Amino acid sequence: MKRLLVGALLYIIALGTVTAQQRPQYTQYVQNNYLTNPAVSGIEPYADLRVGYRTQWVGLEGAPTSFYASLQGPIGSGGQSPKETKSARNGFSKRSSYKKPVPHHGVGFIAQQDKAGLLKTTSVNASYAYHQPLTKYIALASGISAGITQFGVNMQAADAHEAGDDYLDKTIQNMTKTDLTVGFWLYSPDFYIGVSGAQLLRNSKDFDERSTSKQPHLRQQPHFYGTAGLRITMNRDFAFIPSVMVKATESATPAIDVNGRVLYAQRIWGGVSYRHNDAMAAMAGANISHLIDVGYSYDFSTSGLNAVNAGSHEVVIGFKLNNRRKVICPTWMW
Description:
With about 325 residues, the chain is mainly beta. The protein has one domain (about 20-205, about 220-320): Porin. The protein contains three helices and 15 strands. A hairpin with a 4-residue loop joins strand 13 (about 280-285) and strand 14 (about 290-300). It is globular.
């Protein structure tokens, strides 16, 4: 299975080059894959609440800022976690100490707001997932989420150099569109593979490329995500976690993120991330207790933007609610 996962990682790495994305970009999605895949809903035996804030390209006027709050968890007792032993809490357990996952349902909710220049995007989505064990250590989850996205333009902040620009006409109203995301998540205590598609709903205007109307409209492009990761336990205290994600739209070549993290005693982690032709990032975080964890990342541009900005900052705080087993490091989302 590890050979299969290494092959999957290399295959995904070979796919892509960078492209712009309509959806918010986060460096620490590795700590919250629910951001891109609804199948993650309810993967742990507790409710996972996360809030994240990102300020991108500091010093560049109109640069994006993003905020999200997500809450997802199982219905009922949910999946299983490692047996509560001293080694499981303070170091990495042997594979045989993990209990078999059980079939269960998961639900979730996420709200996001992204500001870039004059544009503000706000979205809310609710999700459902079903988790089905395939073997003692491997399970497959399928999920779906639906919601709405509102796009607003702050015309009063516009500094128009030419009069009569239809895109700056104050008669243009805010737009609201529906959203649909589907995903699949294959996982075990040692690996995961996920695929998902977002913004899959289209409306009639999206297909009307011959329209002569001067009024602009937003065309939401479907976004597709493929990701894979491994947890390689080096000894009782250290694990190395390589992962990769490819993001693609129908109108551009794929964008790729490659990540490498080291986890110590299931408590402290640090690592680096690389987005091809875009940025590199340093990441660090800690599982402070069975109730709270924190993460921070700093990105510096490797593109031409590095001359006009002072990097990007991102902070994520997570809360494990109703964590009756007092799990410190998640079993399935590490």
